[in-house]
Design a protein that fits this description.
Blueprint: H1 2-15, H2 18-35, H3 43-47, H4 50-53, H5 55-63, E1 72-73, H6 82-86, H7 88-100, E2 124-130, H8 136-141, H9 143-149, E3 155-163, E4 168-172, E5 179-187, E6 194-198, E7 201-204, E8 210-213, E9 219-223, E10 229-237, H10 243-258, H11 272-293, H12 295-317
C-alpha cells in the first residue's frame, strides 16, 4: 500500500510540475511540425532541427495567419510588392553591377547565422536590408535598389542571392515562421533545370516574375544549367489577424531573426547570433577533427550536447 501511495504521489508531482507540461508542449508542437506538409525531414534530423525548438511559436503564427498556410501563396495576395516586379530591371542592373565587382559573395568570417550552410555549395548573397538596421555598404553600392526595398513597410529583409551552375541547396526548413519568402527573378536561366521545390511542388525562376512561399515547409533548390542565377530574395512580414499575435511576432519573431544580421562589409552591423556563429565555427572545426578520428564518438557526443542544451532550456523555463 505504501508503494502504491508513493507511486501516486510521484505521479501527482510529475503532473503538476511545470517542466512536465513544457515537455508535453514541445512534444506535441514538434510532432505537428514534423507532420505538416507532404515532405518531411528524417525524424532523427527533425528532432534536433531549429524548427523543432521554435515549434510552439510557429504553430501560433500558423493559427493566426490571415493568408493561406499553403506551401505557395499567390503573389496577388501582396499588392504592395508590385513596385519590385515593375522595376525588376532596375534591381537586375544594380545586381549585375555588384556581381561584376565581386560584392555578391559568401560571408568572409563564418559570421552569417542564417545562411552559413548555404555557402558550402557556392550560394552567395549581398544584403540590401535587414530589418531596421541600415546597411552602409548597400546604400553606397546600390542606392536605387536599397531605396526601392525601403519603400515597402512589410518587407523586413532583402538581398541579392546567387546560385551558381551545379549548386544544390539541400532539404531544410527555416526555423522561425515570422515571415514569408519572396523570390523575384532577375538573371535566371528561365529553365525548368533551375528550380526551387517547396513541399514537393516545383517552381522554376523566370526573369521579372515573383513567387511567394512559406519557407518553414521543407524546401530545396538546384541549378542544373551552365548559367548563374541571381534573384532578389525578401522576407515579407507574415500577415496575422490578431493584434496581440502581431505584436508578439514583431517583438519576439523579429528580434530572433534580426539577431542574425550579417555584414556585407566592415561597417555594417553584425547581430549577436552571427557573432556566436563565428565562435561556433571554431567548435565545429574541433568537431570535424573528432569526426575524422572516431565517428561514433563524434555522433554520440554531439547528441549528448544537444540533449544537455535542451535540458538547460527546460530548466531555465521553470
Amino acid at each position: 500500500m505504501n508503494v502504491l501511495a508513493s507511486l501516486e504521489s510521484g505521479l501527482y508531482r510529475v503532473f503538476i510540475s511545470p517542466a512536465f507540461w513544457v515537455v508535453v508542449l514541445f512534444a506535441v508542437t514538434a510532432t505537428a511540425i514534423q507532420l505538416r506538409g507532404r515532405v518531411r525531414l528524417k525524424l532523427k534530423r527533425q528532432i534536433f532541427d531549429h524548427s523543432t525548438f521554435a515549434a510552439p511559436y510557429n504553430l501560433l503564427m500558423y493559427a493566426f495567419s490571415s493568408k493561406p498556410t499553403t506551401p505557395y501563396v499567390d503573389v496577388r495576395e501582396f499588392p504592395e510588392l508590385e513596385p519590385l516586379a515593375d522595376q525588376w530591371q532596375l534591381l537586375r542592373d544594380e545586381g549585375l553591377k555588384l556581381f561584376d565587382q565581386g560584392h555578391i559573395k559568401a560571408a568572409e568570417k563564418h559570421n552569417d547565422a542564417g545562411f552559413q550552410t548555404f555557402f558550402r555549395t557556392g550560394w552567395k548573397r549581398f544584403y540590401l536590408k535587414w530589418y531596421d538596421d541600415p546597411l552602409p555598404s548597400a546604400q553606397a553600392l546600390c542606392p536605387r535598389a536599397t531605396a526601392l526595398v525601403n519603400t515597402i513597410p512589410s518587407l523586413n529583409a532583402a538581398m541579392y542571392a546567387l546560385l551558381p551552375p551545379g549548386a544544390r541547396l539541400g532539404a531544410h526548413r527555416d526555423p522561425v515562421a515570422a515571415s514569408l519568402r519572396y523570390h523575384l527573378g532577375l538573371v535566371t536561366p528561365n529553365s525548368p533545370d533551375c528550380w526551387i521545390e517547396v513541399d514537393g511542388e516545383r517552381y522554376f525562376w523566370k526573369d521579372g516574375e515573383g513567387v511567394i512561399f512559406d519557407e518553414t515547409y521543407v524546401h530545396t533548390a538546384e541549378n542544373r544549367t551552365p548559367m548563374t542565377r541571381i534573384i532578389l530574395l525578401c522576407d515579407i512580414e507574415r500577415p496575422l489577424k490578431n493584434r496581440v499575435v502581431r505584436w508578439i511576432n514583431h517583438v519576439i519573431g523579429h528580434g530572433m531573426v534580426r539577431a542574425g544580421a550579417s555584414p556585407n562589409q566592415v561597417g555594417d552591423r553584425q547581430g549577436v547570433l552571427s557573432t556566436l556563429a563565428e565562435y561556433f565555427h571554431n567548435v565545429q572545426t574541433w568537431g570535424r577533427r573528432i569526426k575524422n578520428w572516431n565517428y561514433p564518438v563524434y555522433y554520440v557526443g554531439k547528441k549528448v550536447l544537444l540533449v544537455g542544451l535542451l535540458g538547460l532550456i527546460f530548466y531555465w523555463a521553470l
